[in-house]
Amino acid sequence: MARAKSRLRTKHETYAAEFTVADYDRAYFTKDPIVDALFTSLTALTANVWSMQRRMHVVETLLEKNGSVTREMIEQYQPTEEEAKQISAARDDFVSEIYDPFQQMGDIAYGSSIDVPENMVSKNK
Fold it and tell me: Tell me: the pLDDT tens digits for 17-76?
């Protein structure tokens, strides 16, 4: 197993998980590699949007507390226990908003629930 290394410079203890090197470039996980590519792109986009939202929260918090902010202040920021709970809840809500539709895949053909009068339906004999 390869060792993950963090380049983050911080006074706080950091953790990096071990990872297994694998060939994911050629793998696909659904019946359609294009769907996999879209899901991978969505996941990357979601991660980036959440990172920006999280960073914006840090910037706003520091501005409220200090009136100004530096990059180092942002990088060194550690949320309080209460803030960490709020951030975790906000993250869970964000993930649900993005990914819950995948759990609600339709099982009714489009339009099958539309009530159409019998005389409007053409029937092939």
Answer: 666 666 666 777 778 888 888 888 999 999 999 999 999 999 999 999 999 999 999 999
Whether the CB-CB separation of 93 and 100 falls below 8 Å is answered with no
| Geometric angle at alpha carbon 93, from 50 and 95, rounded to 5° | 55
- Which residues have C-beta within 8 Å of that of residue 8, sequence separation ≥ 6? 14, 75
Measured distance CA(82)–CA(14) in Å, rounded: 20
CB 2 within 8 A of CB 18: yes
End-to-end alpha-carbon separation of the chain, Å? Answer: 66
Backbone angles phi, psi at 2, to 5 degrees: -80, 155
Mark 53-72 as b/e (b = at least 16 C-beta within 10 Å). Answer: eeeebbeebbeeeeeebeee
Contacts 24+ apart (CB under 8 A), 48-52: 49/94, 50/91, 50/94, 50/95
